[in-house]
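STRUCTURE:
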């Protein structure tokens, strides 16, 4: 999608620090990390938010969870534990309109979130 920040990152029009890439998804470090490890995992297909998931496109979510576990091992946070978060909509804290999952780890994250 033309005006989407994350589509531009996928197209490499905007640089990012990529930690994993395959034909269906891209993972790169968050520009404003909230934990020692903070990676964003996104589908290459433009999906605006979790509200736009349906039976036809939701397979990517399972794939992203498998990729998240792979990256957690790669980043050395699998044993310590991590959080995989999707923010949806204004109250959910979503600021970029392209579905993404935050992989956070490397410190005790606390609960409940703010
Ligand atoms: P949200 O608030 O929508 O759940 O998450 C969007 C995330 O994207 C934020 O954590 C923010 O720091 C990150 N972000 C925004 N712009 C950029 C960018 O240009 N590059 C990278 N790597 N991350 C970004
Ligand atoms: Zn997009």
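SEQUENCE:
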């Amino acid at each position: 999608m033309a005006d989407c920040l994350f589509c531009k990152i996928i197209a490499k029009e905007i640089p990012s620090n990529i930690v994993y890439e395959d034909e269906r998804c891209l993972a790169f470090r968050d520009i404003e990390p909230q934990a020692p490890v903070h990676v964003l995992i996104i589908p290459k297909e433009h999906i605006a938010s979790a509200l736009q998931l349906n039976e036809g496109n939701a397979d990517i979510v399972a794939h992203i969870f498998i990729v998240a576990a792979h990256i957690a091992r790669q980043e050395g946070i699998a044993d310590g534990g991590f959080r995989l978060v999707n923010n949806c909509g204004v109250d959910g804290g979503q600021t970029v309109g392209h579905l993404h999952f935050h992989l956070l780890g490397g410190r005790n994250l606390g609960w409940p979130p703010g």
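REMARK: The chain has a mean pLDDT of 97.
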